[in-house]
Specification:
Layout lengths: L3 H14 L7 H31 L10 H10 L2 E7 L12 E9 L3 E2 L2 E2 L5 E3 L2 H9 L11 E4 L3 E4 L5 E8 L3 E2 L5 E2 L20 E2 L6 H12 L6 H16 L1
Parallel strand pairs: 5-6
Antiparallel strand pairs: 1-8, 2-8, 3-4, 6-7, 9-10, 9-11
Helix pairs in contact: 1-5, 1-6, 2-3, 2-5, 5-6
């Protein structure tokens, strides 16, 4: 995963190069998660473009496929939650939900045959009203429908449990490589050195390091001419660490 220490060192050097001066630990941490979520959200737009290129047979394919790369990166954030209906007859969204992938009923699998039903997802309240009032497309146990708003309503009402697949928001990784339910965090000691053991790295893959640098720098107001400047600063930090 992308190292918060590496990103911080590069951003700090870029800030100095751009004559904007010192970036504090608190300022950096306040921007780190914002930058990570921005990049995460951009992946969905990039996926749409990659799909279009793939359909036009312009995608290189295999390990060089942009479509495959983005799918693999997003797959890390895919989760499955089994949700029970509350006393208010709704299902509560997971706290880390970013985007819904799909939803099904939680019916059993018997003799290798699944009795789960796909749930059609609707975000428009006018549309759900038309569906509920329709003699042809009204929800049934075989064709359930969900309205997604602040909470999740599923029709017909006898659906008590649903299986929700979704992309979670990126959070962070502990120094030991385990997931942490919180934002990426830089920790500096009293002399300004990085306390690596207490830092929380980004949850985005390492190849998004340059993107994170650019996002944070832009949030700071640092003027980056192009991505090469970020790559150059990263290389400088690698050389310094090897000396």
């Amino acid at each position: 995963m992308a190292s918060i220490a590496s990103v911080y060192r590069t951003v700090r050097d870029l800030a100095n190069k751009d004559f904007n001066g010192f970036i504090s630990q608190d300022e950096f941490n306040s921007l780190a998660q914002v930058a990570q979520v921005r990049i995460f959200n951009k992946l969905f737009d990039e996926l749409k473009n990659a799909k279009r290129i793939n359909r036009q047979n312009f995608d290189p394919g295999r390990d060089k496929s942009k479509f495959k790369q983005i799918q693999e990166d997003l797959a890390y954030f895919s989760k499955l939650e089994v949700l029970d209906k509350t006393v208010n007859d709704v299902f509560v969204k997971p706290d880390d939900l970013a985007r819904i992938i799909s939803m099904t009923t939680d019916n059993p699998i018997i003799s290798n045959q699944s009795y789960r039903k796909n749930i059609e997802i609707v975000y428009d309240e006018e549309k759900i009203e038309r569906i509920l009032l329709s003699d042809i497309s009204a929800p049934s146990s075989d064709f359930p429908v969900a309205l997604i708003s602040r909470e999740i309503e599923v029709f017909p009402s006898e659906v008590e449990v649903v299986r929700l697949r979704y992309y979670k928001y990126p959070q962070s990784i502990n120094a030991d490589g385990t997931s942490y339910d919180g934002p990426p965090t830089l920790v500096l000691n009293t002399s300004g050195g990085i306390t690596t053991a207490n830092c929380k790295d980004f949850e985005l893959p390492e190849h998004y390091t340059d993107d994170l640098v650019i996002e944070i720098a832009e949030l700071m107001g640092v003027n980056l001419r192009d991505q090469f400047l970020s790559q150059f600063a990263t290389q400088e930090q690698v050389q310094k660490s090897q000396q």
